[in-house]
Amino acid sequence: MICILDASAAIEIALNKPKSKRLENYLKKADWIIAPDIFISEVANTFWKYHQFEDLALA
Asked: What is the pLDDT confidence band of residue 55, given thresholds at 50, 70 and 90?
């Protein structure tokens, strides 16, 4: 199985949000995990927004 990991799913996992365990299970079953070309930009932008507006620590 091939999974396409988008930024929202990656952030859900990284921040241990409610759906993270279910998403992790999909990724564990995958033979390949791929991501869109803009994945890094999307993740960086989302973490910047969390830092600016949700008081996510830089650490």
From this structure: confident
Neighbours of 5 (CB within 10 A): 17
* Helix, strand, coil fractions of the chain, as percent rounded to 5: 60, 10, 30
pLDDT cut 90: percent of the chain above it: 64
Nearest Cα to Cα of residue 24 among 35, 10, 36, 37: 10
Which pLDDT band holds residue 51 (cuts at 50, 70, 90)? confident
Q: Model-level pTM? A: 0.77
Domain boundaries along the sequence of the chain: 2-54
DSSP class of residue 36 equals -
Q: How far apart are CA 33 and CA 45, in angstroms?
A: 21
